[in-house]
Design a protein that fits this description.
heterodimer; A: about 80 residues; mainly alpha; Arc Repressor Mutant, subunit A; about 70% helix; B: about 210 residues; Rna Polymerase Sigma Factor, Chain: A; 2 domains; two-stranded antiparallel sheet; 9 helices; 2 strands; elongated
Chain lengths: ~80, ~210
């Protein structure tokens, strides 16, 4: 396997969806190619950083406003029946 | 009578209850996904007001179209699909374009032969576990993300941040799986390059010997 071929299989390897035979070749290449090994490590770390980041906080005022708008719209769509009043 | 549900109630059950007129089920669905939608919109648009617009539009659209939702895709994929389109619409508007079609964003250049090779290769000075807690890293991540072409950014966010499968990402964006894979690879490589330039240890930089097979 050449570095270019490894690059083409990078997603499948990192996501664990690579064919076992290809996986073996992939790892054989990495064992003898330090730059490719580091690139694979970097890619994994990159994904981890984005996955583990703090979620954005939604402004409370906006949230209330949105839920009000949704409830209003909902009541137009499903008018409350009198026995539920 | 109100039917009981818990945080473990599957989305599909809440969808059925909401379709039958259960406002509380609809609100539970909204509560489940609003932060994800807002986060996706913030990462796509980097502007609070626009992210709020996308979030509200998304859930109004969910409400409007719930009856037509047949569950071919999971509810989460469906919601993220609506949010993706709403975010792209704003991006196109910013650029002065009217089109919102994702297909039109498909370029013939989306093939594996044109994938850029990694250039700056170095071990990082710190582990992601340490880095993730630092404010300046948050900024670095957002800046790097904003420099991605939006069609690559959206694929990366849906697949790697929202955790959709390649198939689901393809469904959400009406792209082929092959196209999703190439865009994802481009996004991952570009982000790796940018983050490594800042987080990489220059003392542990590796120079790659370029192979040029005949």
């Amino acid at each position: 396997m050449k570095c270019e071929e490894l690059l083409a299989m990078l997603n499948e390897y990192v996501d664990g969806t690579v064919d076992p035979a290809v996986c073996e070749e992939f790892e054989k290449h990495m064992a003898g190619c330090n730059p490719c090994q580091v690139v694979v490590d970097n890619i994994r770390q990159t994904i981890t950083l984005y996955q583990d980041g703090e979620p954005y906080a939604m402004p409370v005022q906006f949230r209330e406003k949105m839920h009000d708008a949704l409830r209003k719209k909902w009541k137009e769509k499903f008018p409350p029946k009198s026995f539920e009043d | 009578m109100r039917q009981p549900f818990t945080p473990e109630t599957p989305d599909g059950d809440l969808v059925s209850l909401a379709k039958a007129g259960g406002l509380d089920a609809f609100e539970a669905l909204t509560n489940r996904y609003e932060l994800r939608v807002y986060g996706l919109a913030m990462r796509m648009l980097r502007q609070e007001h626009d992210a709020e617009d996308v979030t509200q539009q998304t859930f109004l659209s969910v409400l409007e179209n719930l009856e037509g939702f047949r569950g071919e895709a999971s509810f989460s994929t469906w919601v993220l699909r609506i949010a993706s389109h709403a975010a792209l619409k704003i991006i196109r508007k910013r650029k002065g374009l009217n089109t919102v079609s994702l297909e039109e964003a498909t370029e013939p250049a989306d093939d594996l032969n044109s994938i850029p090779h990694p250039e700056y290769i170095a071990d990082w000075r710190e582990s992601p576990e340490h880095l993730v807690e630092r404010n300046e890293v948050r900024r670095l991540l957002d800046d790097a993300l904003s420099r991605l072409d939006e069609k690559h950014r959206l694929v990366f966010l849906l697949r790697d941040v929202e955790g959709l499968s390649v198939r689901e990402t393809a469904d959400a964006l009406e792209l082929s799986e092959g196209n999703v894979k190439v865009r994802l690879l481009r996004a991952r490589l570009q982000l790796r390059e940018e983050l490594t330039l800042v987080l990489g240890d220059p003392k542990r930089q590796l120079v790659k010997s370029h192979h040029h097979p005949a």
